[in-house]
Amino acid sequence: MECSRKPTTVYCGFGSSFGLAVYHAYSGNSFKALEHYLGCGFWQKAHSTFITSVAHSLFMSGKQSEILRLATSMEDHKSEIENWDLGAGIFITFYSLKSSLKEDDSMTELVSLQDKNDACRKFFSRLKGSLAFWEGRLPIDARC
């Protein structure tokens, strides 16, 4: 009798989405695991999978909209996610800052330019803290 190793039914009180998340994590497909963790509301596990296994490869592949989609899908649950500001919150801040820097009004007002400079400085300080926090859990290619 052949047995399928892909969990598709409810086991031990966990739904099939959680079972599929565990299956995909075990088989090395972090992106699919992340989608299933999001689907079953395991926000902390989804967040750590996003930061340690998915976000860097999406970023290096130029899939900015996918990063923003995944990060914003967790944003409503950030109070349930430990170290949100050092993880997915960094990406939301980055894209918001990037958008504000593209606005044309920055050259017309010195105050606005100073505000944007301060925002960049604050962002890079947070980014440095994020790297220090996650460094040991990130793949080597994500640390550069």
TrEMBL record:
GO terms for cellular component: nuclear pore. This is Uncharacterized protein. It comes from the Eukaryota. PANTHER family: NUCLEAR PORE COMPLEX PROTEIN NUP96, NUCLEOPORIN.
